[in-house]
């Protein structure tokens, strides 16, 4: 019960953030349960088969446990070298691509201290550059798609004022991602000899930058050295595919940010409306009373206007400055001038001083606004000074 009351008291942005956190954690729990159910039995079966094969080989060739582990280590380390030289320029470029795109297949890794240190600094600068670059290009792609759709609707569908909706861009993005994935899967099925399903799986894992490393292109038959065309195709697939995926992700992120921005603006408008309503209610209960103390031998004129919100305060104001203000309210206490508004001299004697104050009262007519009250006080001040001078 207290949790529900707390949620009701929170802002929409905070509720959405908390909901996303809870949903993400629940999604992790569901994923863990599903993977456990699907993969744990297969894993145990594979482990049992490997132990049986290891025991069979050791018995057949009379190999000790230590020798078998050493042979196993050599075989595992020799796998990357089947692709050719990993650290010549072509292979190094492919590795650098997997670094800044955060794919990280794990097919190759620096072994020297200098290589590891440079890899960390290179990734520290390269990953932000890569993210910004792909997001920027994806944004330009969305702009181009919106322009093409607008021209298509205007020319082919004969719409006078074509509009491209958010759903139109999402549909185009989904179709583009599907085309990239299926075409890449067909190509890698041909070049690598994988099944189409495994090729599609590799393309998806690559373009989402998960990069498990169980399937890695360019790792057979020394492809990095002998097949430059295939190397170029693999790199283009990564860059173009990540651009298309970034364009689609931009739409989702933009939608979420737009929702947050709309909620923030709505909260600001509601707060401004509440403040305005409070100000109007406060002003509607005020009454202006002008207290004239007569002539006091001072050499300055002091006028102080006080309201519920201190909207206007003027000290040591001369009569010339006051005469620039116009009284807009003459329905209360202000005399009627049949021959027009009287004029007053801007000069004032040094011995005259008037104190005008706005005092709170609860009997004010609610039909007058705050500006009327201020200007009404000024008009009465003029009339009082005229009578005093006479």
What does this structure look like?
This protein has two domains: 74-253, Orthogonal Bundle (Helix Hairpins), CATH 1.10.287.70; 287-336 and 348-390, no CATH class. It has eleven helices and no strands. It has helices at residues 2-9, 12-61, 65-78, 89-100, 113-155, 166-192, 196-207, 223-226, 228-284, 319-322, 370-389. Helix 5 (113-155) crosses helix 9 (228-284), helix 6 (166-192) crosses helix 7 and helix 6 runs antiparallel to helix 9 (228-284). The model is unreliable at 287-370 (pLDDT under 50). Keywords: Ion channel, Ion transport, Membrane, Potassium, Potassium channel, Potassium transport, Transmembrane, Transmembrane helix, Transport.
Main features:
single chain; 390 residues; mainly alpha; Helix Hairpins; 2 domains; 2pore_dom_K_chnl_TASK
């Amino acid at each position: 019960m207290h949790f529900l009351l707390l949620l009701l008291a929170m802002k929409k942005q905070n509720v959405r953030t908390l909901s996303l956190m809870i949903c993400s954690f629940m999604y992790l729990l569901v994923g863990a349960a599903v993977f456990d159910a699907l993969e744990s039995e297969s894993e145990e079966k594979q482990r049992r088969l490997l132990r049986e094969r290891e025991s069979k080989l050791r018995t057949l060739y009379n190999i000790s446990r230590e020798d078998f582990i050493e042979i196993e280590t050599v075989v595992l380390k020799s796998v990357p070298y089947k692709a050719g030289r990993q650290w010549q320029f072509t292979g190094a470029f492919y590795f650098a691509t997997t670094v800044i795109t955060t794919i990280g297949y794990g097919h190759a890794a620096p072994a020297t201290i200098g290589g590891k240190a440079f890899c960390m600094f290179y990734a520290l600068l390269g990953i932000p550059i890569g993210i910004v670059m792909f997001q920027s290009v994806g944004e330009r792609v969305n702009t181009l798609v919106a322009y093409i759709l607008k021209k298509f609707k205007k020319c082919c569908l004969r719409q006078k004022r074509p509009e491209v909706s958010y759903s139109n861009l999402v549909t185009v993005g989904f179709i583009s991602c599907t085309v990239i994935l299926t075409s890449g899967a067909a190509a890698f099925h041909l070049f690598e000899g994988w099944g189409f399903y495994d090729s599609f799986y590799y393309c998806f894992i690559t373009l989402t930058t998960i990069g498990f490393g169980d399937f890695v292109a360019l790792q057979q038959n020394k492809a990095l050295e002998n097949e430059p065309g295939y190397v170029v195709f693999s790199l283009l697939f990564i860059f173009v595919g990540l651009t298309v995926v970034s364009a689609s992700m931009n739409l989702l992120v933009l939608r979420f940010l737009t929702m947050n921005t709309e909620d923030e603006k709505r909260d600001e408008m509601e707060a401004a409306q509440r403040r305005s309503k409070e100000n109007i209610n406060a002003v509607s209960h005020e009454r202006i009373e002008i207290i004239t103390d007569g002539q006091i031998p001072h050499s300055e004129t002091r006028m102080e206007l006080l309201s519920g919100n201190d909207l206007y305060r003027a000290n040591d104001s001369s009569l010339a400055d006051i005469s620039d203000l116009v009284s807009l309210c003459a329905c209360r206490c202000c005399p009627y001038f049949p021959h027009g508004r009287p004029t007053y001299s801007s000069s004032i004697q040094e011995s005259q001083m008037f104190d005008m104050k706005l005092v709170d009262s609860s009997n004010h007519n609610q039909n007058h606004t705050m500006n009327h009250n201020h200007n009404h006080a000024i008009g009465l001040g003029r009339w009082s000074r005229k009578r005093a001078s006479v």
